[in-house]
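Give me a protein, keeping tokens residue-aligned:
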Amino acid sequence: MGRGNQDATDLRSERIETIGSVNENQWNHVVDQAEHSSVFHRYEWLAAIEDGTKLTPSHAVIYKKDNLVGICPNFVTDIDKTPFKRLLSTEPGFGGPITTTDEAACLELLFEEIDARCGREVITHLFRPLDTATVQYQSQFAANGYSPNVANCRFVVDLRKGWETILAEMSSSRRRSIRNGHAENVEVVDREIARETIDQFYLNYCSVMERLESTPYPLGFFAALLEFRDRIKVFSLSVDGEERGMLFYLLDDERSSLHYFFSGVTETDFEYNASELIHERAMKWGIENGYETYDLGMTPADFDDGLFKFKEKFGGEVVPVVSWEKGCSRALWGLFRAGRRAYQRYESSTE
């Protein structure tokens, strides 16, 4: 979503099945100019998802004459434990529609294109904006059939406070872990973004995902992100010269934020306080390089959740993640929602 209120009669919409059919400079110009964009809207991020995963792209775009002025990146994803699929903006990451002009008209056309993509197989469209200010479009989202949901949140640290204040606002146990970690012969290394680094990180990342009983993204996705290397940071902990954990970051220059996004800290690295020491170095790097916020990433909005508790101890602000979802098939969407409620009740009764 952007700025301006001009004559919208010369707008036209399209649905594209590969981002390669759009000029990269035009696409990123929209991202650079739109008010609520993020690194997850950028051409290179979406191209890596398309090239490195099996997700099916189905992006909606708006042209004003020959100029791209609006985008809503989407990928078709499976809905777990169902035969149905969802149109999601974006996976992985955050998304939603953004425009540089004629906001109301562009949003209507984008939603029309999205509706046309849905059917008997794709029964719902969901988007997760990163910028919480997009709630100002609630009335237009609702008018197009979208309902909000706050099942997740993010912890965001204000780097403008400076390291000493940030450290003081952490929990005592987190400060103790950082202090104890420095008692060892440790160094946090800013890794070169090269294939060797990606391959090494991926081995650790897969170990983490196995422990969490989650499915990792393919190696091809991370390899494709080498084309986006100017927006990637990887820090690793070295203990007595031996690598003991890695964390993968995205540089969100659009929002002046450093995103912790993927973990390569395995169980064997816990005794060295690897997560705490790498987060410390990354926050200091963000401060040194002028970033305003440090985003610890999405977690369930549940105070009793283990991931929530871990991230809470870094002292950041809890920021709600508002997801907007619309059922695209009245009959199938109703059936799906009824089944989802029944499953949630069952899961709750067995805990």
